[in-house]
Structure formats: structure tokens, C-alpha cells
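hey can u run this one w/ N-(iminomethyl)-L-glutamic acid bound, need the C-alpha cells asap thx
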Amino acid sequence: MAGDLLITNIGELSTPTGTSARRGAEMSELRVVEDAAVLIKDGIIVYAGPGADVPWEEADGVPPMSADGRAVVPGFVDSHTHFVFAGYRDDEFMWRAEGLPYMEIHNRGGGIRRSMEATRAASLEQLVEIGERRLWTMLSMGVTTVEGKSGYGLDLQHELKQLEAMSVLSERTPAAIVPTYLGAHAVPPEFEGRTADYLDYMIEEVLPSVRAQGTARFCDVFCEKGVFDIEESRRYLEAAAEMGLGLKLHADEIEAMGGAGLAARLGAVSADHLLKTSKEDMAAMARAGVVATCLPLTSFALRENHADARLMIDSGCAVALASDLNPGSCYSQSIPLIFALGLLYMRLNLAEVLTALTLNGAAALGLAESLGSIESGKEGDLVILEARSARFLAYNTGMNVVSTVVKGGEIAYRA
Ligand code: NIG
Ligand code: FE
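ok here u go:
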């Protein structure tokens, strides 16, 4: 989308600043402007600042819109989701509510493999329809950029189908979609007990086709005890890097595997989950500039302690927060709940949560130069709230306070 728009009478404009991830104490440095205005031309922000200083010659002929004193924040970047899947696992949710551990269900052949069966059985058009509904739900909560993973096909044909669905959806909805190949999500039944053969298959057959298709920008692995170990993850990710994909890892979610340390050694763009990550690996992520992506909706839904994002920031990391929307561990894409959990249970401040969901989310997708903040040169993605301050994102606990969503200077959604 590439429109022209002049938004005036913004009661409070709150945004992180910069073209790279904010780390450590920088995450608390928000730019807050009262009585602000934003001018977007051809989809790009050309002015963001006091309403009194709008460059009126440049604004000539641009359609104006008053924010009526309401608050504005950048469009949210949900940098970790599995939003293209078919079928549901509501029964597993009930078993977990009764106390059955997530990995126990996985090891009994439930979990990811069940979603694989449903996703393989779905047509491309069905996946597109399902994905489109979920993207509109996200847009309604202010999400303008969404990362989406494959990983429920687990063979060449169906992994490419999931990636293809995302490519169709990026044309069909206003949201920007960043696809990730996650073939190493689980070992599919046809390779049962033959993890090394499945890795060879992905490296020799699937990854080259993923590259040829040209949709995926990243490659991800579920590095976890009983799924893919450190050595297997390394071999697969190095092959993906050679094919030009950026690297991401599901790391240290259930067991402390050293996945975050591997992310640092491989120069991955992000390591995600991080519930059990050691202090040493947090320091390694900070040194290597790996974005530490925490997924509070998943820890909440699994009734686990949240990742120690407070310690990660205090160790100098750039922290991002994302939904992890998926049919198993976390069937939620609630941005309002992320704000509530981030502030109340992860002990982050509002500026940190806002930065984690915008600029640092963009950095976790390699897009911080063009997305994630409201400043000149960035894409015109922003959210007008139904409130006078960004504080309402957390204060109005669990409620959606989004009024209008602008993507590339065009109105993408109105409540
Ligand atoms: O990020 N942990 C691995 N993958 C997903 C869950 C996938 C599923 O259960 O379907 C996650 O939590
Ligand atoms: Fe995930």
C-alpha cells in the first residue's frame, strides 16, 4: 500500500526511534510528542513531530484526517506466528488444562503431527481463506506486519503450499507478511526414527525448492529435547544460511538446550521462546546482536514461568515480543494480552513492551530500516487508539483499544 495521508490533532504520539534494534536501557527511550502530526506521502513518512511544525508546502493536496486528540503508536510487528494451519487441537488444550505436559502429547504422536495431517489435507485455497481471517483479526488489533512459518506440511509439496499461501495473502490483505520455512518443526511419520535422513531430505530436496520458490526469507528449527538437538539444528541452519535464508530458532522452550547460544554462534537474527535460557547465553545473544524474542501468550497458555525478559534487557539484549499464534501451545494472537502480561508479569515498562512489539519486532525480521517506528523515511504504518494515551494499551487490560489502522499511508482497518 502506498497512500498519502496527513494525520493531525494527535493527542500523544509514542514511538521508539532508529533503524536498528534497541538494546538494553535503550528500550526505555521512547519519543513522546503531544499535539503531534504525521505526514505520509507515497506510503512513506515524511514528517512526524509537533503539529505546529508541519511542513505545509509538502502537505499541499494531501488528504487530512484528524485523530481528535487520540494517541498514536507504530503498527505492531508480530514477528513469530504459525498462522497458516488447518484443523484445531482443542482436545489437547483441555488435556493440558488437566495437567498433561505439552511434550507428553507431542511424544504420543499428538501435537504438531496432528496439525500436519489437517494441513496436508487442506487445499491452497482453504489455507488462504483461513489465513486471511486470522490476518484480519490481527489487523483489528493493530498488527501491520506478520511473520508466518510453514512447518505443518513437513514434506516438499505441503511446505511449499503453506509458503505459497502466505505469498497469495500478501497480495490479498493489507498486512505485510514475512514467510519463514520451518521444515524442522517435527520429524514427519514417514521418517519416524530417522531424524538424520529427514535432515538430509530437507537439506537436499526441500531447501533448494524453497529457495527456487523465492517466498521464504528465514529458516527456523524447533531445537528441543526429543525434536532436533543442537548438532542437528546447526547442520540444518548452516545449509539454510548457505542458500541465503536468515536464521531463527525455537530455543530453550521446554529444556535448557543451549539453543540461544547456538543462535549467537550462527549469527541468527533471532532466538525465540527462551524460557530456560542461561545467563551466559543471554550475554552471548547480547554480544552477537541476536534479537531475544519472548512469547508470553505461549508461556501463559502452557502455565510455565515467562521467559526472563527483564534479565535479558538488563543483560543488554534487544527483546522482541510476539504472539506465537499456533494450533497447539498457543491459539491466541492477542496483542492486548501481550501488553498485560509484559507489564504485569514480565516486569517490563510500557516503553519496553511498545519497542518489543514494534521496532525490535521489525529487527527480528531484518526490517528495522523501513518499519517499526514513526519517523521520516519509514513506512507509514501506525495505529490510532480509542484512547488519549498509549498507557491504555495495558491499562484497559486485555481489551482492544484500536480505533484505526494505517498501513503505508492507507487506512487498512477501522473499528
Ligand atoms: O512455537 N514449539 C514449537 N512450535 C510451536 C508449537 C507448535 C504446535 O504445537 O503446533 C511453538 O510453540
Ligand atoms: Fe513458534
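The chain has a mean pLDDT of 97. anyway lmk if its weird
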